[in-house]
Design goal:
ABC_transptr_periplasmic_BD; alpha/beta; Rossmann fold; ABC transporter substrate-binding protein; signal; ABC_Transporter_SBP; 4-stranded parallel β-sheet
Length: 268
């Protein structure tokens, strides 16, 4: 009887339609694009979001060029025969309702604020795509990038107009896990830090995303201020493109590797 029950359970699992790998995946979300490209079989990908090939927005823009893109509508997803559609956490409510009404599985991809949350999203997405082992492998790559050496190095992520991602953001968490202590922990999820405050804090390094080579507008003027140029020459700056720290996926692995390498090379 036990063997029979086990056999019946195994059969039910095999026949469960909810566990079947989707054959027509459509992503209408920029972060989902990147995970689908990293975790799905090429033949599973029916289409990606309108911004999938935008190099300023996506860390997987070049890879995405090989796939069709939609304008972001439910009608397009239905015409493509989608059986799994990825959306953002709060966008396209009408699209979601229409797809639900047609029996299409809809997955809303959460926005992570830590590496642990990012790994949870990676693993869940891989399971939905029918490739859980790929999710585990990508999560393991993220862990492997966090090879911290001894010694304290303080860092401040600094962006246009003096905005600093806080320690409770995904960039802040990646910094901490890579061995970079946030110089302004009071910023929480993020906040503005004045130039005077930076000079007073005197962190060991600045973490910059896409630092400007010259003053292009008022937003970038602060980043090329003479005081920062004097205190933070190139060896005290870690450049991490913004597109790498927005979404979970291979781009985030690259961001952590850049942080870890910058931390190892930082002057003490």
């Amino acid at each position: 009887m036990i063997r029979l029950a086990g056999a019946l359970l195994a059969l039910m699992v095999q026949l469960s339609p909810g566990l079947a790998a989707p054959g027509r995946v459509v992503s209408l979300n920029l972060c989902a694009d990147q995970l689908v490209l990293a975790l799905a079989d090429p033949g599973q990908i029916a289409a990606l979001s309108p911004f999938a090939t935008d190099r300023a927005s996506s860390a997987a823009a070049e890879v995405a060029k090989a796939y069709p893109r939609t304008r972001g509508s439910a009608e397009e997803a239905l015409a493509l025969g989608a059986d799994l559609v990825f959306l953002g956490p709060l966008d396209r409510m009408a699209t979601s309702r229409l797809l639900d009404a047609r029996g299409v599985q809809v997955e809303r991809m959460a926005f992570p604020s830590s590496l642990d949350e990012a790994k949870t999203i990676i693993r869940r997405t891989a399971r939905l795509l029918g490739h859980p082992e790929r999710g585990e492998a990508l999560a393991a790559r993220l862990d492997a990038a966090l090879q911290v050496t001894t010694g304290r190095v303080t860092a401040l992520p600094y962006e246009r107009r003096g905005y600093a991602s806080g320690p409770r953001s995904m960039l802040g968490d990646a910094m901490e896990r890579a061995g970079l202590a946030h110089a302004a922990p009071e910023t929480g999820f993020g906040g503005f830090v004045s130039l005077e405050r930076v000079v007073a804090l005197r962190p060991d390094v600045l973490v910059l995303n896409d630092p400007p080579a010259r003053v292009a507008d008022q937003g970038s003027a602060l980043l090329v201020h003479p005081a920062l140029a004097r205190l933070y020459p190139s060896e005290r700056r870690i450049s991490v493109p913004a597109v790498l720290t927005v979404c979970p996926g291979p781009g985030l692995v690259e961001a952590v590797e850049l942080l870890a390498a910058g931390r190892a090379a930082a002057p003490r």
